[in-house]
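Bumping my old thread because nobody answered last time. Still need a sequence for this structure:
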């Protein structure tokens, strides 16, 4: 029983005279594709973080509205507003992702006809480098009836 082994020299492609000038083409193609790849990558990261921050703003508005709408005996309207604002600000402080110091979240609370409305907002959302001005501001609003 003899095993047949293919000669590795026969399996190689023959060298041609055209193969020598193509050695640097991979590097040139990489240099051309890399900036486009990085723009797409950083764009995906920026918009993903913006979507996360929009979700955090929505959760903060709901949390603030729930904290203010829950029944507590002998509570004034100012106490309701303060508890709603404090709960929303705590969620924002713990969960927002920022790429710079310019992102300033704000919470607005209002009461009208036993309906508590909490609005959370981020002005001047900053993204990564070239994407910093694309998303101007993000906001969310929640309304609940005061129990």
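Sorry it took so long. Here it is:
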């Amino acid at each position: 029983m003899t095993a047949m082994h293919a000669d590795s020299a026969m399996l190689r492609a023959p060298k041609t005279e055209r193969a020598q000038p193509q050695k640097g083409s991979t590097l040139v193609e990489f240099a051309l594709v890399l900036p486009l790849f990085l723009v797409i990558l950083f764009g995906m990261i920026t918009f993903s973080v913006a979507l996360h921050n929009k979700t955090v703003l929505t959760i903060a508005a709901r949390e603030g509205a729930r904290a203010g709408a829950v029944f507590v005996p002998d509570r004034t309207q100012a106490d309701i507003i303060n508890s709603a604002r404090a709960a929303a600000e705590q969620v924002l402080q713990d969960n927002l992702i920022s790429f710079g110091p310019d992102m300033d979240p704000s919470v607005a609370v209002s009461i009208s006809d036993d309906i508590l409305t909490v609005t959370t907002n981020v002005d001047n959302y900053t993204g990564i480098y070239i994407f910093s001005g694309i998303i101007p501001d993000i906001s969310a609003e929640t309304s609940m009836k005061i129990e």
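The mean pLDDT is 85. Let me know if any region looks off to you.
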